[in-house]
Design a protein that fits this description.
Layout lengths: L1 E2 L2 E9 L7 H12 L8 E10 L2 E11 L4 E10 L3 E10 L3 H14 L4
């Protein structure tokens, strides 16, 4: 969903969340970004966390274009039957608003 500050997204992948290591799933997401963009999307500050007792992975995202720098945040969450993805991405000038948007999205998530 697009917002004035960037975009926020949420996806549930129908597959066991532990089918692949979370780091591998993050790499797949970064690679899939290249399908629609010329510039690569990279991750930094990657760290393992837990979410409602489930293994999760947080990372900061960056993509540099000729015109602007994009920044964002992602969390991947393992579930027994799903891989859950929460993402916020937009212009680096809006980083503070994007971080707040990402945190609101995470606070609203409930995994049954």
């Amino acid at each position: 969903m697009e917002t004035p500050d960037g975009a926020v997204g949420f996806a549930i992948h129908d597959m066991p969340g532990d089918r692949y290591p979370l780091e591998d799933n993050l790499q797949r997401i970064l690679e899939s970004y290249m399908v629609n963009a010329v510039e690569p999307l990279t991750s930094s500050n990657v760290r393992k966390v837990t979410f409602d007792g489930r293994p999760a992975l947080d990372a900061r995202l960056t993509s540099e274009t000729e015109d602007e720098t994009l920044t964002g945040f992602i969390r991947l969450i393992e579930d027994d039957k799903h891989l859950v993805q929460a993402l916020a991405l937009g212009p680096a000038a809006n980083e503070k608003a994007l971080k707040a948007m990402h945190e609101r999205l995470l606070a609203s998530l409930r995994i049954p």
